[in-house]
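Following up on my earlier message about phosphoenolpyruvate. Here are the inputs again, as you asked, copied directly from the submission form:
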Amino acid sequence: MQEKNIDDIWNKRPFIVSGPCSAETEEQVLQTAQQLSKINNINIFRAGIWKPRTRPGQFEGVGPTALEWLSKVKEYTGLLTTTEVATAKHIDDALKNNIDIIWIGARTTANPFSVQEIADSLKGIDIPVMIKNPINPDLDLWIGAVERIAKSGINKIALIHRGFSSYGNTKYRNAPMWHLAIEMKRRYPSLIFICDPSHICGKRETIQSIAQTSINLGYDGLMIETHISPDKALSDANQQITPSDLEKLLRNLIWRNENIDNEDLFNTIEKMRQQINHIDDELMGMLSIRMKIVDEIGQYKKQNDITILQTNRWNEILERAYKRCETLGLSKEFITKYFDAIHMESIHHQNKIMNS
Ligand code: PEP
Ligand code: MN
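Thanks, got it. Here's what our run produced:
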């Protein structure tokens, strides 16, 4: 089978990576790859070989044996192959077996020692690297990993948003925290940016909707875990789907374009954006006036030894806002965050006054 070309694929959208969470048997790997290779737009086959498990005693991957299976995937289907690496030894093994792309997992991105070890062993080597967000919601660790890998001379870097671990999180396995991903995308506009809804969701049912949200935000593509018998998978069974379900999912996705090519449409949107700019200016002006009054109250509190935090007053502000927000089309969740931010800033202002 004619092997695909990495440069073509790197510049092609959508950028879709799929395959099992873990390579388990040669048959499972080859059958999954055969089925995926028939689906439009899938060019890259993933499979975990060394699995970083949170607790010992779980399936930790089959190790280097599976590298031969991935070579066969390439030979039989033409798909490019990718696997997760965490150490210099993994990289050495992967390169010897002609893996096309490597990826750094969420637990590894969180560890600068490991990322540096990977970066050092990539010096002088030309291989694309995909970097997952760190497991904890710390953008600097993600940025640091990009900087380390870029410094080692790697020029094809992709970012994978796989969500962030948070305590007591029930709806998602890893909360998407879209604002962090959006900020990362803003900082690195030229890097490929893809979403991994499998690890965000942790279960099949919500993958389609998270995938669509990411496409609505202008992501370049997706990494989605697939398995020929998902329920029997040795890792991440609840979130894997069959290749044929992936095909349906991709068919139901509505792809969106970040560029607005149509001039009329652009002008219409531009006019509305001007209105938004005016409103934003006014909102900031009003906030500034609000803070001046807050400062004045701060002086009175200081002179009369009154605490900054007045719980009853804070409850009253929230209750007033909650009464009005729904009729204004503003959700209670948003209004809570908005007033929290304003209240914290007001406390900060008054604290400065008290300490001056
Ligand atoms: C994986 O892709 O199977 C994996 C282990 O992912 P993450 O590093 O995002 O947990
Ligand atoms: Mn997985």
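One observation from looking it over: The beta strands are 15-19, 42-46, 80-84, 101-104, 129-132, 157-161, 192-195, 221-225. Hope that helps, and feel free to reply on this thread.
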